[in-house]
Amino acid sequence: MKRSAIIVTIIFLLGICLSSQAFAQDGYTNYAGDLWSRSTLTGDWGGFRNDLSKKGVTVDFNVTQVLQGVVGGGKETGWEYGGRGDLTINADTQKLGLWPGGFITVEVEGNWDKSVNGETGALMPVNTNQLFPMAGSDQLNIPAVTLTQFLSHYFGVFVGKLDTMSGDMNEFAHGKGDTQFFNTAFSINPVALLTIPYSTLGAGVIILPTKDPNEAIINFMAVDANGAAESSGFDTVAKGNTSYAGSARVRTDFFGLTGHQLVGGTYSTRNFTSIDQDLRIILENRTIQQKDNSWCVFYNFDQYLYEVKKGSGQGIGVFGRFGASDGNPNPVHYFYSLGIGGKVLRTPRSLDNFGIGYYYINVSNPTFTGSLGNTRSFLGNEWGLEAYYNFAITPWMHLTPDIQYIRPGQRNTVSIVGRDEAGLPIVNRSSLSSATVLGLRLQMIF
Predict the structure, then answer these.
(1) What is the pTM of this model?
(2) Which DSSP category does 181 fall into?
(3) Where are the chain's structural domains?
(4) What is the DSSP code string of 188-241?
(5) Rounded to whole angstroms, how far apart are CA atoms 100 and 88?
(6) 69-86: pLDDT as tens digits
(7) Does 3.30.300.30 match the CATH number of domain 3-445?
(8) pLDDT at residue 21, rounded to an integer
């Protein structure tokens, strides 16, 4: 889809009025309704889709397109267009008449064209949506094929290829950049990104202390530290590089309003490249310096300050994250974010949502020591602001303008501008200023 086509589509759809949200009833997703009120563009497929849902099978597909540009500062100004499609199939084995307690998930993702993630100089990507299934263009992969089996109301196990972005859940700041914030700093705690691959083979356990996963859930897992969405993972899973992760999330009732508290941590046995390198050691040993293992701990919270009805998801609240790591090999030493978000309270726009957030990264500045003992640093601490408003044109179509202002971790750019009389390169070093990024996102749910 060309850039002009998405603009024409947006202009046309801005004239459509929002109708009521499709709903779930009797334990299944209801896809029925007229064109402007149902939850998906293609509806219930003549009743077949609703019949599948009653039997425990849901088939959901969405496409998210992003037009985004660096309009000031950063490494380079300019606009890029890209998109991602996501197909997710869920099956309840008991409703299918097979065996009780089983749940199967299969996910297929593909992206195309480009993003401005490399143009800001920031550690945190400004377009999370374009990272999946793999950063770069024209990727189509299967990031998740998972079987979850509950052995009781309190305990379950899961195994398969896992989509780990479902972790670090937060009411107002989570996902893959397709429904809430664009920036990765507000999607998941970045201290964990080094140790836990996005898509990887693994297994784990789920504990439900009260039977209700919405009240409290605890999970532990072990995954292949070398996993990737583009491979099955069977070629690396036996190499002994393993990452471990655990988290616990509990619903709170502060001030009589819904909230959540989450704590977790990761540990990886993988060998990583050290963020500090010494040329003298590299020349002597003919190898890049390594660091064994890496760990991090993280915390997040969300808390409603106002709810239309308790537990309805309609209201306004605050959120925050904090994380800490070893600092080497993980360059994100400390991290925190704070913000406000929620759904608009007026009934005609009850499906709209918005968010405003700030993040800060304390960077373990990588250093390079030359042959004469001179040491040079590369990065500084990073912070950023983001604000978005998600217009629900219909329940299956959402248009989101977004603005970000980022003081990037990269402080300078280096370029070769010529050569001197001896033929040696002439290097020009220029400083990076804070980047202003504008974006427009269109998501369609089929």
Answers:
(1) 0.84
(2) -
(3) 3-445
(4) S-GGGTTTS-SEEEEEEEEE-TTS-TTTEEEEEEEEETT--TTS-STTTGGGS-
(5) 21
(6) 999 999 999 999 999 999
(7) no
(8) 33
